[in-house]
Each structure stands twice: as C-alpha cells, then as structure tokens.
Amino acid sequence: MMLKYIGNRILQIAILLVIYVAIVFFMLHAMPGGIKTLLISNPKLTPQAQEAIIRAFGLNQPLWLQFVDYMKNVFTLNLGISFSYYPTPVWNIIAERLPRTVLLFTVATLIAFFVGFASGKSLAWNRGKTTEYVSTVVGIITYTIFTPLLIFVMIWFFGSFLGIFPLNQFLNPDLWIHTRLNAQIVFLYILMTMVIIGAVMMVSYLMALRFSHKESTKKMIFYVSTAISIVFALFLWVVSPIGIYGADILWHMVLPVMTVTIISYAGNMLVMRDSMLETIKEDFITTARAKGLPDKVVRDKHAARTAMLPVVTNFVLSLGFVVSGGVITESLFSWPGMGMTLLDSTLAKDYPLAAGALIFTGIFVLIAHLVVDIVYAFLDPRIRY
Amino acid sequence: MRPILELRNLKMYYDTQAGQVKAADDVSFVLNEGESIGLVGESGCGKTSVSMSIMRLLPENARIISGNIFFDGRDVVKLSNDEMNKIRWAGIAMIFQAAMNSLNPVYRVGDQIIEAITAHEPNVTFEEARQRVASLYKLVGLDPERMDNYPHEYSGGMKQRAIIAMSLACNPKLIIADEPTTALDVIVQDTILRELEKIQRKLNMSMIYISHDIAVIAEVASRIAIMYAGKIVEMSDSVAIFKRPAHPYTVGLMSSFPSIRGEKKELVTIPGEPPNLLNAPDHCRFVPRCPFATDECWKAVPSYTEIESNHFVACFHPQNLKKRVSINA
Amino acid sequence: MMANNANMTVEPVEAKLESPISIRMKLMWRAFKENWKIFSQSKIGMIGLYIVVIFAVAGFIVYPILANTVWKTTSLNAMVSYNPVTGYDFLQNNPAPPSWAHLLGTDPLGRDVLAQLLYSTPREFMLGIVAALITVIIGTLIGTVAAYFGGTLDTFFMRLADIVLLFPFIPFLIVISGMMQVDLLTLALIIGLLSGFGGITIVLRSQGLIIKSRPFIESAKVSGASDAYIIVNHIIPNVMPLSFLYMMFNVTGAIFSEAVLSFFGLLNIKMSWGLMIYTADTAGYIIGSNIWNYWWLWLPSGASITLLCGAFYFIGRGLDEVVNPRLRKR
Fold first, then answer.
1. CATH class held by domain C38-65+108-327
2. Is this complex's ipTM strictly greater than 0.90?
3. Cα(A204)–Cα(A221) distance, integer angstroms
4. Chain C residues near residue A342 by CB distance under 8 angstroms
5. Which residues does chain A have within 8 Å of residue C291's beta carbon, measured at their own beta carbons?
6. In this predicted model, what pLDDT tens digit does every residue of C51-106 receive, in sequence order?
7. Predicted TM-score (pTM) of this structure
8. Is there a single domain that holds both residue B191 and residue B296?
9. CATH code where residue A289 lies
10. Distance CA A85, CA A341 (A)
11. Residue B303 is assigned to a structural domain of this protein
12. Best mutation site among A284, A297, A298 for testing chain B: the one with the most B CBs within 10 Å?
C-alpha cells in the first residue's frame, strides 16, 4: 500500500520535473533575441569560446531539437559551461553549492517546523491570554516583513550590536589561510555527520515504536540513542584536527539559518493555531477527555497530532515562499549556495549557470515536496491508499 | 437497590454574549444500580447538557451554578479535574452522539481502547489489554482481527460497536449513551440498541439513554424522564409514560412519532417554536405552545405532583387518558 | 371581472417595478453592508484597511499637492531649483540625516527620501493591483470553467496549478528580469500571468464544484441556459468573494516580488521602494556596523514595503472571516 503510494508520488514528481524543465527552457528561449544573442553579447567570452559553445550545444539547430538535447543534458547533468567561470562546467559549480543550500534549508525548516508547531499548539491551548495576542502579532510581523529589512536588522543586532556572529561569508579567511584543507571537504563532513545523526534518530524512533508500548520507555529509547550519537559525533569533531574549521563554517551558518527560520516559522505557527482550534472542537477530543486522559495527553497525543496534518500541507504550499526567502538570505549573507549563485550568475548574464541554478532550485523544491508527501502519508493513515 | 447516581437540583448555565442560557434548571433524578433511565426531549432541551455535567466535560462558557451530582456517594461537582479523571471512564463511561467522529482518525481503533484501559489500570500489560479488547470486540459482535484497523476502515455501524466496546473497557458502573444510534440506519439502529440493552443486563450496569425518540427509548429504558427547556417535566416508568402520558408536552411528543403497531393515527405536530432558553421566564416554559394553558400557567412555574405511584409531572393541568381522547376526537 | 382583476394586479406591480440594474445595485449594497459589518469586527482586517487608506491618501493626494507647492521646481533660479525625486541637493553633504528641509533626510544621490517614498506609492499600488487583477481574472475563469466542465480540461489545469504552486517564484523572476528588460507593467503582467495559473485556480475550482452542485444550477440548465451563461451569471458571482480574498493575498505577493527584484537592481525602473534600498546598499551605506547610522536610507522604504504588504495580507485575513463562516467568533 505504502510502497505503491510512494511509487505513484515519485512518478508524478518525475512528470512535474520534465514539465518544469520544459517551462524553463521555453521561457528562456522566448526572451527577445534568444540565447544566442545573450551569448554573443557577453563580453567575457572570446569569439572562439562562443563558437565552441554554439557548436557543443547545438544552438544553431531547430528549437525542438535543442529542447530534446537540453532535456537529455539535464538528466545527464551536462548543463553546459559557465560563462563567468569559463571553462568550469555548470554542474561542477552546482555540485559544490547545492549541498550548502540543502543544509541551510533543511536545518532552518526543521527548526521552523518544530517551533511553529509547538508555539501554535500552546497558543490554541491557552486561548485568550496576553501571550496569545503578543505571539500572534509577532508572528504576523515576521510573516509579512520585507526579508531584506529583516536581514538588515539581524545583521545589525547580532553582528554589530551584540557582535557575536559573523556578518557574512561562508568561512573566516584569516583562519583558513594557514591550512591546506579544502572547505568543501570539511563542509561535506559536517553534512555527513548531520545525515548520520538524523538517520540514528529515525532508526531509534522506529525501534522505540517496535519494542515498547509504554510512552515513557519509548521516549527513553529515543532520547538516549539520540544523545549518544550527538555526543559521539561532537567528540569525534573535537578530537579531529579539522574540528575548528568545521566549527568556523557552522559559526557562519548560524545567522542565515536563524533568518530562514524566522521567515518560515510564523506561517507554521499561524496554521497550527487555526488547525488546533478547529481540532479541539472535534468529537474525538471530547472522547479523549471523557476517557479520563490527563490534559497533556489530550493536548499532545490527540489534538496536536491530528492538528499537525494541515501544517504539513501548508508546509508544501509554502516551499516556494521559503526558497525565495532563502535566495535573498543567501545573497545578503554571501552564503555561497544556490540562491547566491542564481543571483550572481543572473547579474553577470551567465545564462547557462543561471538556467542550471534555476533548474536545480526547482528540482530541490520538487524533491522536498516528495519528502513531505511521504512524511504526510506516514502521519495520516487515511491517505495511504 | 443502591442508588448509583443522584442529581439534586442541578443548575447548569451557559454565559453567552446575549445573556444567560439555562441549559439545565433544577434537574433532579435518582438512578439505581442496574437500572436504566431515558432522557427524552427535542434537540436543545438540555439533555446533553445534563450528561456533560455528570461527566464534568463542560465548554468554557458553561458553569454548574448549584446543585449536586452524587456518583457512588461522592459529589462530582466538588471534585478537582484530576480526581474527576479517575472517575471518567472507570466509573462513568460515555457513548457519544456522533460515533462517526468520536474516534481519532490517526490511531488504530484497538489502540484507542487500550489507551483507555492503561490510563486507568497502569498495571495491565499491553498483551492483557489487547486480550481484553479482543473479548470486548466479541461481546459487541465485532471481529477481533479488526482492532488493528483505522477508523476510516470501519463502517458506521462498526464504529458504533467499537465505541460501545470502548465504553465497556474499564467496567464502568454507569454508561451514558447520548443518541447512540441517531447516525445509523434504522435496522442497524435497532440491533445495536438491543445488544446494548442485553449487555447492560448481563453486566448489571446502570445506563442513561439520551434520545429525542421516545419510542426507541421506551424499548430499552426502564424509566423515562421527559425534558423540556432545561427542566424535567415528567418522569415515570416507561410503561406508565407510554400508556398514560400526563404532561401536554409528552402527549405531543407521543403523537409526533408514528407507531409501527396499532391503529393508523394522523401525526400531530406540536405547534410553535421550540423554546428559547435565553432569559427563561418565571412561568411554565411550555405555556406558549400548550393547548391547555390557562391564566394560572402564565403566573408560576408548576411544581411536581405525583399523579400515580412514582409518576411525577410538573403541570397545573395534568392530562389523563380520558381527557386526551376527548380532545383528539 | 377577469380583465378588471388583471388590470388591478398589473398596475401596482408596474408602478413598483424598478429597473433590474437598480434592484441589483440595492441587493449588492445590502450584501456589502452585511459583509462590512462582519469585516469591521475583525481587528486585523481593519488595521490593514487603515494602513492601505493612509498610503493611498499619501500617494495619490498628498504627493501631488506637495509636488506642486513645496517641491515645485522653479526654473528661474537654476542653482536652487531642486527636484526632490531626481535632483541633487547641493546645499549639503549627502546622504544627510533628517532635517527641516528634508524630513526623512536625503539619499547618497542627494534626493529627498520622503519625496521618493511618496512618489513611488501610487506605482506600488498600480503594480500590486494590476498583477492581482490579472491573476484573479485568469484564476476565476480557469477555476470555474474547470469545475463546471470537469474531465481532461480540469485535470490539465489542476496539474498545471500543481507545478506553478511549486514554482520557485522569486528565483524565476530573478532570472527573467536579468535576461530581459523588465519594467513595472511587464512585471505586473508576468507576475499576474504566472500566479493566475497557480494555487488560486485550485481554491476557486473547489468552490466552483460546491456551487455547481447547488440546485439552482440544475434549474438554470433545465430552463435552457447555455453553459457560458451559467458560468458567467451563476457560478462566477458566487465565487467572487473568494476571488476577492485571493486578490488581496496576490497584491501582497506582487508588491513583495517587485521590492525584492528592484532591491537586487534587476528592474528597469526609475524609482521604487526596493530601488531606494538598492541605491543605499550599492553605495555602501548598509554594511554591518554602519547600518544604524544611516537608518533613514533603508528603514522608511523597508518599513513601507512591509506595511503595505502586511496591510493587504491583513485585509485578506479579515475577509477570510467574511468568506469562511467557520472562522467567525460566535
């Protein structure tokens, strides 16, 4: 049942992906002058280089043939050669930068989800108190604030006023100048650590579900194994010589993560609040109360768990919004991820890189969508077939 | 026989923007062990308010103004919420009005029943609880295999049976069945009610049935209390009420339901609107719709008179069979 | 007798008969009053409305007045003549903090910040409303047509909406505006077109499906109304409130997108709130510790964007309570 559902979703996403690439392709070709003009008007390229690119990518061919080629190229990750980093292939640049965006986005989104979920839950549960009013207003302000304005304030407050976080960049050059370490490798180690910790958490959660029926034992299994894995990972990092460099990268990540979190938590909070208020009125909540369950169990196990479903749905709908916020955030913090690449390459008229970045941003959104869909199916038994 | 539940002058009011709504006004009755009583009345007459008061599951704007609810000798009105949680389900269980939505859609049905068991009997292991659920499923006529299904995989009748099984999970002394079968079709309705009655007799539980359908209630409850606008207007054993209704409202209720057996009668509707409980007047509340009303009825609230043994009615002009016939003619 | 009777019944009716338009107007007025009552109880909606009205007055009334009086360029004295939106104030070092001459200071190019702010306001309104109108017109048409006819048409537009919904909107606009010259109207057109095929069609379609199942559609069909007539006269008026609600959210989206794009300097426009921040940013006045020393360069414009975006969003939330009775407080 579940596998069939997931298979279906993957198929649908694949179709959406093809359509998405087609839209991007034709949109770019619909521009006045087309790609060739952009290519020729780019001052960074010598006529020989232009000629080579035109030949390599068949820009003299009829449009539909170009499209077929382009499609083929996208799926073989052959996205052309960047104009501004000539002759680096676009895929190499994207492969370097995509993981950074994925990490930034995933961490921020997870935090935003849990913060939004928890605060929305308690807002609905403690209705009519001053805290409800204040948090709703703060939530709406952070939800509607112009992102650059928010970032200016963040930079000023944390970077300048408190002076505790670096203002921008991916790393501190003064520190890295004495080492021959490659930042990308260190970064990939960080990513790997996080993936492993995440996997441990997931496995221990499933184990807890399987091996115990007592709420308290379940929690213990989960928390203990999570804590052990985190402590172990921290120990390895502290001991290893690259520890300090990893810490430097993480240190630079704090403000961007915080910004993207603030951008996206409010939406989750407001939806959770509304959904929780609806759910509290449901009959099964009355049943749970009548069963003599403690208030906390009614709130967490029955109301919040069910009210969570619309929040997950809303999360899918807000993916585009959060990714857009991510682009602005990356650019303003000079965090060299996909968003910054996209903006920089656009400003440099580096068409292949811009198109590649746009396509991979889209792929990223689609995959995030797929992941959320699968999570949703686990959360809602009604959807599984 | 020992009384299991006693309501003494229960007053439960809602505070609304428009004013105070007297949902239950001076409601009193006694229910003995193993006995069943039916609360009958139109929607909005305060039946559910009474049952929610007994369970102490009131919405935020509702308050018990005065009165006592003695359950097993303890006044539940005075208990704290934590103490009340111990009585809920273990002492008083409930079968809810809307069976369709009474089960949480994201948990397995069996687990929701087990949850109730382990909440009250922490020493019961998971396996024991499962076994108990399985035997409850058999008791209510469900396949124990189905306990690992989710609510959406159940039909309406199955859900209702599962809820009955759930209500029995902690061996409560009293079960309140609030419109237990309204959402079901007539045939399923009948079977489930009969099974409920059978289980009640078998386990010697007390039972409060709540319904708008006096004919259904008369079949399963030994006594009936008729409610109108937050007050009990007539109370007696089912046979007496059915054969010799005394309050004009009961008479009206009786003739607004068709009977399967017996002669064909024209169905009579009770004229007028159901009462507005807002700012209740200090005279008989049925009087605007009552065909027998006199000046006296507009002046005071009638008190209970015992027109025959254990047959109470709150009316200045209790009807008897003879009079009713003459009016119908 | 019969004729008499007929006369008697016809005459008073004719006397009372109003033109269909005036009846319609009256009905609309009554519906408006009822909805206004619900809307005005929503605190957040009213706050939004106040903010929008203030901006509208500032942009459409205050600016023209000021431009023709205080800020009027006098060609006689060329040295002193100063156009606050485009000119350079030579009388001081720029950017200058707020003073009596420049209530919100001047930017690095010597232009008056307040004047720029007011000058841009009507343009922001135009952009937001044009884009939202296009979105709503497309969305309503597609949503109702898809709901009414169903089938392949329905499936096609819903799948399309799925994609548009997932579209990384801002990245896409960034690439487009980087590749071609985009001015305000083109931007409104692009935003309107793109989002017109998006989520709004899904919402309006499901509303359309509800209305389609109502009995009056069936009776209109039986009495021989054409499909187009039913859609235009019966379904669309009933989804209108929801369309209007989504229009408010789309105004927010459009203004926000424009601000982001001009903040990155990607738009081919003379002046806008986002561009004001861009100017200050590229001139190097918004860097780290500097940021609070030159607050008038980014705070007024940033706050204006936030407020106007927020205001339309608030109105949307307020309207939500009118359109969605479930959310209403009892």
1. mainly alpha
2. no
3. 7
4. 171, 174-175
5. 152, 155-156, 160
6. 999 999 998 888 888 877 766 655 444 445 566 666 666 666 777 777 777 778 77
7. 0.82
8. yes
9. 1.10.3720.10
10. 12
11. yes
12. A284
